Amino acid sequence: MLFYLSLVAFLSLLVMLTYRYRAFIIPHVPDRVKSFFPMLNNYVPLSTFSEQVGAGMTSSDFDIEANINDGDLRTGLDERGTQEVLEIMRRERVNFDQARLIRHNRILARNGIDPSGMPMDSKAITRL
Questions:
Q1: Rounded-to-5 percentages of helix, strand, coil across the chain
Q2: pLDDT number for residue 12
């Protein structure tokens, strides 16, 4: 019984680590294996500003091209946030600025803040 429990724990750990480091693992998976899992071909991290501009992650209000022209040495936008914004753009069929606003409002709501910036907690002191 203990053997099976440790085997399940080991396999669970292996699955979690594989999911966590999928960006590093997927490029090393052979094409024959990738053909069995079409979802693996969709994940491509956007690591540089030029790749993010090419994916539509820029607008007149959020100009990444200015960073490229100024020779910004950073690697690009936050990958997790980039994936969230791309998913919102795809799912809700909105432009980049609207997707950023939706994501920002969701983050505020998770932290107990309404879209106007006021706390939703009735006990919060907003004026003295």
A1: 60, 0, 40
A2: 96
Rounded to 10 degrees, the C-alpha dihedral 103/104/106/111 comes to 150
Task: Detail the DSSP E strand segments found in the chain.
Answer: none
| Count of alpha carbons within 13 angstroms of residue 43, beta-carbon side | 16
Summarised one tens digit per residue, pLDDT across range 13-54 is 999 998 888 777 877 878 787 777 766 556 555 567 777 777
Query: Token pair of 32, please?
Result: 């024959």
Handedness of CA 69, 88, 78, 30 (dihedral sign): negative
- Round to whole Å and give the CA distance between 34 and 32: 6
